[in-house]
Structures are given as C-alpha cells and as structure tokens.
Design goal:
It comes from Streptomyces pseudovenezuelae. Keywords: Aminopeptidase, Hydrolase, Protease. This protein is of the alpha+beta class. It contains ten helices and 18 strands. It binds zinc ion (ZN) (3 copies). One zinc ion (ZN) binds next to strand 8.
C-alpha cells in the first residue's frame, strides 16, 4: 500500500466510515477494531505511512469512544497530515517505551477484537501478552462487508479507474507485439496506466504462447512470435481505487481452435456477468461462468476461481468461488474473469470489473471482448 495516493475524501467522510465501522463491530459482538497500516487503515483514515516498519502503528476503534491512532513519535507529524486525522486522536509512543502497554490502556481487558488481516503477528502477540484476557478475530471474517459495498463517490472512482484501464487497452493494441519481448510490452502497459492517471501499477501480465497457460505468469524475456495468443492482465490504483482487466489478443490471424477457445471464454465471461444481481450468492457467479466451460469439455483447464473483490486494493474479498454464500449487494465491485489454460500451448482470459446495481451487473470495463488481432 505504501506509495499509493489516498482517495480525495474529507475528514467528515473518514469520520463517518470510522463511526460505521465501530457500530458494525458492536453489532458483531466485538469490543473494538484494531487496524494496522494497509488497505483498511487507508479506507478508514486516509493514512498510508510512507514506509511500513516494525514500529507499532494501530488505529483503535471502540464503540462509543473517539478513534485513537497509536503511532510512533517520529511518524506522528506525518500521520497528523492524513485527511482523516481531524477525525481521530493521535497517541504517540517513543522508542524505548512499550507500545503494547500504551495500546492496552485503550482496550477493554477481556474483549474480543477484530484485527485487520495484515497486522503483523509480532504486534498481535505483543498485545495478547499484555492483555491475556483478550481474544481476536480476522477483520474480513468478522466484518466482511466493511469495505466491500462502495458508496456513490467510491463507485465514481472505481469507474474512472476502469476507464483508465480501458484507455490503456485501446493504446496497447496498437503497439507492435511480434518480435518484442513480453517485458517490453509490459513496460508499455505500465507507462500507459500511469499516463491515464494511475499512481500505482500492481501488475502487467503479458503471457505469450505457452506462457499464457500459467495464469500468474507476469512478464519474461520470451520474444513474442507471429501466431501467439497473448494474455494481457493489468491494473493498479488511480486516485486510491483499483483497476484490473484482462484481454487476450492474437499476433496475426488465429487458428479455428484459438478462435473457438476464445469464443468459449467470452461466452463464460458473459454468463458470469449475467448472473450478477442483488441477493445472488457469490458462488452463483462462479457456477454460471464455469458451467459454460465445463459443458464445452474444457472444465479441467479452468484452474482458478471466477473473480475477486476490488476497491482500495486490487485483490480482496468477496471471492466469486464455489462455497462462498455471501449474497451480492448493490455497490459491491469484483472481477468476472474466467479462463482456459492449455498446458504447453496457450491460455485465454477475459476479465471485467463488475459492480452490482439494483437491476443486475454493470461493467466498469467496456473494451472489445472479441478476439483482437495485433501486429
Ligand atoms: Zn496462434
Ligand atoms: Zn486481472
Ligand atoms: Zn483480477
């Protein structure tokens, strides 16, 4: 999260989020929330320390009490500049003092607390040692909906990030692929994402030919050849909110089989998208997309879940996966990204970010989903 530009929200926005989070914690039977630097802290306060270090920084939210950010003395001036700082109290601790004792003074000594998923184990263990009567739950398990449902202002930022990713695809399809290294096309993608307003590039996958069969191949030194399928998957953060889209292009004219597999993935992506509406379980999106691929006999080649949530990070709950019974709620944003991966040969993935509306899904990526032929 370091280096990301926080979103353009005011202290009042952050105050409202912290109040809502504290209320939700109380409703979930928690004595409070403990939030370490990372996406939850960014979302609640706008504070992203320039470096996440071993020194304890922790937001303490407890129902009925003002929020407190425990922060190392040397980082307090920086924290005081965060957009949400006017909505909280800073409590600094100096090197040589016990940060867990300082934090414990703010906590109910027998409570159960929600802890942000990415808090360091050493800090949680330090608190537990200081307050042996406390217990802890992972924040995304205790309050899975805290960041998942976006408000209107957040949805606008998500749409703008999606539009910037679309603009990136419209430009990348014009560059030469054949004869260049994956890493060179990847650098083009990163440059375009930045040109269209991203402050952080999280991934630029350029997976050509057989590399396309590995869903998380990033980029390598392979030289892209005529006849290659190339999976492009790129995204990052623009004004604090994420983009993530995939398109698969072909260098020169594709074979019938390549077209057929691409059409299949496109139909699966469409089916997943059409399954999106309020009240439907996340797993139904996965089932709808997967059924198309299974029915065509390619089920064993679709080797990952259909999608993941996105917001102030590019991968987060909820997950579109068999077994996830969480219902879709208007304002949720997630990817629908089925793929087929033929080992040693090629892969195809098509991915859009979709948001849930009252009437169904709305795509935040709208570039061509037909197989695009590149040079
Ligand atoms: Zn080919
Ligand atoms: Zn992606
Ligand atoms: Zn994705």
């Amino acid at each position: 999260m370091t280096g990301s530009t926080p979103a353009p929200f005011t202290a009042d926005d952050y105050r409202a989020r912290m109040e809502r989070a504290a209320r939700s914690a109380a409703e979930a039977g928690l004595a409070g929330l403990l939030v370490a630097p990372g996406p939850d802290l960014v979302w609640l306060t706008g504070y992203a320390p320039t470096a996440i270090t071993e020194r304890l920084t922790l937001l303490v939210l407890a129902p009925g009490r003002a929020p407190v950010l425990v922060v190392p003395t040397l980082e307090a001036p920086d924290a005081a500049k965060a957009a949400g700082a006017p909505a909280l109290n800073l409590r600094d601790w100096t090197d040589g003092k016990d940060p867990y004792a300082a934090t414990a003074a703010l906590l109910d000594s027998t409570g159960r607390f929600g802890v942000s998923d990415n808090a360091w184990a050493m800090h949680l263990l330090g608190l537990q040692r200081t307050l042996p009567g406390t217990t802890y739950a992972a924040l995304t398990e205790a309050l899975p909906m805290l960041r998942a449902v976006k408000d209107a202002a957040e949805l606008e930022l998500m749409a703008a990030a999606g539009a910037a990713a679309d603009a990136t695809f419209e430009e990348i399809r014009k560059v030469p692929f054949g004869g260049r290294k994956e890493s060179e096309v990847g650098a083009d993608l990163a440059g375009l994402l930045r040109r269209f307003g991203h402050s952080q590039v999280d991934f630029t996958i350029v997976a050509s030919g057989p590399n396309g069969a590995d869903p998380h191949h990033e980029v390598g030194e392979r030289v892209i050849e005529q006849g290659d399928m190339v999976v492009l998957d790129f995204g990052g953060l623009k004004d604090g909110y994420g983009s993530d889209t995939s398109r698969t292009v072909h260098v020169g004219e594709p074979t019938d089989e390549e077209r057929r597999v691409h059409d299949l993935v496109r139909a699966a992506q469409e089916a997943g998208f059409r399954a999106v509406r309020p009240g439907v379980a996340c797993q139904e999106v996965d089932r709808a997309a997967r059924a198309v691929i299974v029915d065509a006999g390619y089920g064993e080649y679709f080797i990952h879940r259909t999608g993941h949530g996105i917001g102030v990070t590019t991968h987060e709950p909820p997950y579109m996966i068999e077994g996830e019974q969480q219902s879709l709620v208007p304002g949720m944003c997630f990817s629908v990204e089925p793929g087929v991966y033929l080992p040693g040969r090629f892969g195809v993935r098509i991915e859009d970010i979709v948001t849930v509306t009252e009437d169904g899904g709305r795509r935040l990526n709208n570039t061509d989903r037909e197989l695009v032929v590149v040079d």
